[in-house]
Amino acid sequence: MARHLVVDKTQTIDSRDELIYLLCEAASVEHSLMCQYLFCGFSLKVNVSEGVTDEQMNQICNWERFILMVARQEMEHLGLVCNLLSAIGAAPYFSHPTFPYPTSLYRHSMSLDRFSAQTLKKFICFERPRGVDPRHAFCFEPDLQIKGLIDVVAPSPLPYETVGELYEALRRGFENVAKRNSNLFIGPLSTQVTGDELLTNFVRKGATGGGYDIFMAPVTNLESALKVIDLIIHQGEATKVDPKCEEFELSHFRVFQRIYCDLLKIRDAHPQFEPARAVVSNPVLYPDAGRPGQTKITDPNSRAVLDLLDGAYGLMLLLLLRFFSHVDENKALFEEVRAAAFFPFMTMVIRPLTEVLTSLPAYEHGGPERAGPSFEVYPNVSLVPHTRSAWRVLYERFEELADDAKQISQRTQMPERVAYIAESLELIRRRLASVLHPLGIPL
User: Fold this and answer.
1) Could you tell me whether strands 101-102 and 109-110 are parallel, antiparallel, or unpaired per DSSP bridges?
2) pLDDT digits (tens, 9 = 90+) for 131-178
3) Which of 296, 318, 284 is nearest to 401 (CA)?
4) Residue 366: what pLDDT?
5) Which end of the chain is more exposed for a tag (fewer CB within 10 A), N or C?
6) Which of these, 220, 243, 198, 222, lies nearest to 72 by C-alpha position?
């Protein structure tokens, strides 16, 4: 099996199976990084009533903008990896382990943590470019949580220590396997998702991607595969080493490095400055027995919103699976569903629910601690292969979510914003019905 063949940096990837295994590892890494960056960004305070000045609030908003830009590009990377998988005849991969869990990324763990200097250090280490001394990227400080995690969850057996190193291994693997196998690229182009279909492939000044900082490209041969890998490496890594943060560019490494430097400068003048809400780490509804680092949310309203968000996140992953493995949907259906559900669902449901959660108490007994998203992946997030039944299942999920959101919005002391989210879900459900009903899909 490929898992046992790719065990150290000296070995060569020389089979389709090994490429698929390493691509699935890359998809899991990108998905996990995206979740951590979103969690960090949404933990930031949102107005001056939370104990910050107007000037500090402007800085916080700027940090959030750049952190979410990086998170969107991790979404792009996840999509590009799924295109690479489809191109060589494999299925898209949208799973990741439950947070927190150990990783090969230089002694840090994949963990959902609020914005802080320590969290930024971890992100800088994750995105460390080739040629940057680990000591200049905070990779010399082992995660205090990781030892306990390794006792219950084994880290990946793959030996990479940075994201760039993982993609360099993939680049060499594609070159080697393509030499050995002239039929490497066998997947139908129709199953891939491009920026032309998502309407994101246009250049924006000051951005490293297209619309929403996302630039999706198809993979049809070795040249296009390497181009995609190089794009991912370029967006993550800096072109120059700048430990003093005197220059700025939009690579992920440099974004986090700059935010860290900005935070230290403000703290020098204002030692009590706290830009983030007291969001707990790795919030969950039901902790895994024996897994350290998780935080059980006990406040009833917070649990209700977290449960709703978990369901919405699972539905979003089902939508992504369908988008990246659509078989016999016609182009009109694909475009209509994109407009009716895909982007509106992310911006009108997923994001606002996450923002509401970070404003709610984590514990029933009160206290300053806030709740947050868990980004759990449930076992039932799997592909339904047949078009009619697939969209019936997806539509039912929208119905259930809309009904649940309406009931939750009527709970005592529930924030008013949840009612608007419930209305948005109902509008998305109705528009989706208007698309599916003329196609004869039973609703």
Assistant:
1) antiparallel
2) 788 888 888 655 555 555 555 555 555 667 778 888 988 999 999 999
3) 318
4) 84
5) N
6) 198
DSSP label of 361? B
Residue 42: how many other CB atoms lie within 10 Å = 24
Over the chain, what is the mean pLDDT? Answer: 84
Burial of 122 by CB count in 10 Å (0-12 exposed, 13-18 middle, 19+ buried)? buried
Given its phi and psi angles, is residue 188 left (phi above 0), alpha (psi -120 to 50 degrees) or beta?
Answer: beta
Residue 3: the pLDDT is: 46
Q: Are 202 and 211 in contact (CB under 8 A)?
A: yes
Encoding tokens for residue 215?
A: 């630039």
Q: Are strands 283-284 and 295-296 parallel, antiparallel or unpaired?
A: parallel
- Would you say residue 2 has pLDDT above 50? no
pLDDT digits (tens, 9 = 90+) for 201-247: 555 444 445 445 667 888 999 999 999 999 888 887 644 445 555 44
Query: Could you give the C-alpha distances from 318 to 34, 46, 391, in angstroms and in order?
Result: 17, 31, 10
Contact between residue 372 and residue 310 where contact means Cβ atoms under 8 Å apart: no
**What's the confidence (pLDDT) of residue 239?**
47
The answer for residues whose C-beta is within 8 angstroms of residue 68's C-beta and 6 or more apart is 37, 38, 41
Query: Percent of the chain beyond pLDDT 70?
Result: 81
Residue 241 has what DSSP assignment? Answer: -
Q: What is the pLDDT of residue 4?
A: 47
Which of these, 69, 104, 398, lies nearest to 256 by C-alpha position?
69
ω into residue 100 within 30 of 0, thus cis? yes
- For the chain, domains (ranges, CATH) are 2-269 (1.20.1260.10), 283-439 (1.20.1260)
Burial of 188 (0-12, 13-18, 19+ CB in 10 A): exposed
Predicted pLDDT at 418:
97
For 279, which DSSP code? B
Q: For the chain, what's the residue count?
A: 443
- Cβ-defined contacts of 172-175 (< 8 Å, 24+): 172/12, 172/13, 173/12, 173/13, 173/18, 173/19, 173/22, 174/19, 174/222, 174/225, 174/226, 174/229, 175/222, 175/226
CB atoms within 10 A of CB 190: 12
pLDDT of residue 106: 65
